Amino acid sequence: MNCQNCNTIIENGYALCTACELRFAGTLLRLARDITPLYDSLDATLHPGGHSPVRIQTATPPTPIRLDVLDLIDMLDATARELWRCLDGIDALDWRKDKRNEDLKATLIACAGHPRLATFADAGFYMHVVDGIARKVDAALDPPEQRREIGTCELCETMLTAGAADQWVTCPVCGREQRAQTVKLRRLKTLCWDDSERGSAADISKAFAVSGLKVSRKTITTWEQRGKLPRHADGYAYCDVYRLLIGPDLTKSVR
């Protein structure tokens, strides 16, 4: 007989091999550990998640709870209790024999230590389902770093992406490794040297911020109000904002 998860040949008639049984139990225990931070992360003002919460202020009041996390908890609860009934051999329709445990954490721990975890017929299926839920819990508690477009590769013109802390990027097409800041500045130079490149105050502020130059949207609109920055039908010219932004520094360097 083969393991339902890794297809390894096993001779004891079990549905899972020893390694997969240990991994399945470990995932259940990890989910039990994550129950408390998962409930904490229901608070919509906490970001990015339960493992490293940071309270943030938003422009508009958020919903009282994160509905995606609430759905995830419901999914985990239903799966854990269904698994527990399978392990105990309880018919889901026979409610009188269902010794319902209201504590989700205790239910997960009980499943992880159950002697039939690797022997019941659908062990491989439930292991796959629990692994999928565990990945969603990890993403809810510790979301991956957001990557944004920073510019194109100097060889093949492929758009490159990088995280906020990335120092180097590698082109996925030609494999060339480039310094992230150089790519950002090259993109900014392309925008600022072409008089036809226009954008809104928000777009320009964001493009400059990615390249390490800080100019707020309010500053750009103030320059317009004071007559320093012309506004065209399709927005402001990147080159005009760039000249105003670095102008004082250039003047100081000449002196």
Short description:
The chain is mainly alpha-helical and 255 residues long.
List keywords for this structure.
255 residues, mainly alpha, two-stranded antiparallel sheet, 8 helices, elongated
Going across the major beta sheet, what is the strand order? 1-2
Cα Rg? 28 Å
Tell me the number of strands.
8
Average predicted confidence as pLDDT: 82
What's the story with the biggest beta sheet?
2 strands, antiparallel
Explain what this protein looks like in three dimensions.
By secondary structure, the protein is mainly α. Helices cover 48% and strands 9% of the residues. The protein contains eight helices and eight strands. The strands form four sheets. The chain has a two-stranded antiparallel ribbon. Strands 3-4 form a two-stranded antiparallel sheet. A hairpin with a 6-residue loop joins strand 5 and strand 6. The longest helix is centred in the first third of the chain and has 23 residues. The radius of gyration is 28 Å and the shape is elongated. It starts with 17 loop residues before the first helix and ends with a helix. The C terminus is likely disordered.
Protein topology:
Blueprint lengths: L17 H23 L5 E2 L6 E2 L11 H22 L15 H9 L10 H19 L6 E5 L6 E4 L5 E3 L6 E3 H14 L4 E2 L1 H10 L6 H9 L10 E2 H17 L1
